[in-house]
Specification:
This protein is α/β, with parallel strands linked by helices. Helices cover 39% and strands 20% of the residues. It has a 7-stranded mixed β-sheet, with helices on both faces. A 3-stranded antiparallel β-sheet has the order 1-2-8, with no helix packed on it.
Length: 282
């Protein structure tokens, strides 16, 4: 495995992965986020709960753009609730797979390549911004495409979380080199401010990622392996003794992981944070 390090900028406090690969294609295999049927159904249910909260921000029939929509589970949840949806994916193969599966509009273009008059009531970046080498530039393009009063929702791992501090280099959500930038609540808000956005709300609870993050990060420390369960669930590794052991240990660890997740949410030190922002006033 190639060696990577995380360094913090003395000027702004944002942490970066170095060295940055010239191309990240080899780190995004075709199976990346290609979960099986059971995991997909679980995620679809959990994402549905999250979308149910988000749709209350705007009236029914509003429009949403999801940047980095993956298999389109969140877009599908918005569509079921009567929203107009558009998704963006990083390559045409992934976009075509999601289009065939869901019948929704998903394109393989960048935000800046969208029509200049395209405007959205809600723009969602769910675990995307940490993968972007220049997050300010992307956020600026998103800010331009919000309707008056529109909202931008960004979910990223919390580099200041208890999970991160406990697991260090073994933290599930460190995920170098795919994660190029590592945000704290302060640096996320400052990054958005530089892009012409103002954070109006930030929260730290993630039922999809937090308890699981505690389990996988603890397994990483105990076994010395890297994300064994995640790699199996994504179809990257076959089932074997290491995977079986991780499932057994994970089941034993889950009650404590759930308790730690709940405590971290209360302390505002959850493993994942969600920021809701609006375009700053000129």
């Amino acid at each position: 495995m190639d060696p990577f390090h995380v360094v913090e900028c003395c000027a702004c406090g944002v942490a970066f992965t170095i060295p940055r690969p010239a191309s990240l294609d080899r780190y995004y295999p075709g199976e990346y986020r290609a979960f099986g049927v059971l995991v997909t159904r679980i995620l679809s249910t959990l994402y549905g709960f999250r979308v149910s909260r988000w749709v209350r921000l705007k009236p029914k029939g509003a429009s949403v753009l999801e940047v980095g929509c993956g298999p389109g589970l969140m877009l599908a949840a918005f569509h079921r609730r009567g929203w107009q949806v558009l998704g963006i994916e990083r390559n045409e193969g992934a976009a075509e797979t999601a289009r065939r599966a869901l019948g929704l509009e998903i394109v393989a273009v960048s935000v800046e390549e969208l029509p200049t008059d395209a405007r959205f009531d809600l723009i969602v970046m769910f675990h995307v911004l940490e993968h972007i080498g220049d997050p300010v530039a992307l956020l600026r393009e998103c800010a331009k495409r919000l309707t008056p009063g529109g909202r931008l929702i960004v979910n990223v791992p919390n580099f200041l979380s208890w999970q991160s501090q406990f697991a260090g280099s073994k933290w599930l959500n460190l995920d170098t080199p795919r994660h190029l930038v590592h945000f704290t609540p302060l640096t996320l808000a400052e990054t958005m401010k530089r892009a012409g956005l103002t954070v109006i709300e930030i929260s730290f609870a993630s039922l999809e990622h937090d308890p699981y993050g505690w389990v996988e990060s603890t397994l990483n420390r105990l076994t010395g392996r890297s994300n064994t369960v995640t790699r199996f669930l994504m179809g990257l590794d076959p089932f074997g003794p290491a995977v079986l052991l991780s499932f057994v240990l994970g089941a034993a660890l889950f009650p404590a992981a759930l308790l730690l997740a709940l405590m971290s949410w209360i302390a505002k030190r959850g493993g994942v944070m969600e920021a809701i922002a609006v375009a700053s006033q000129p």
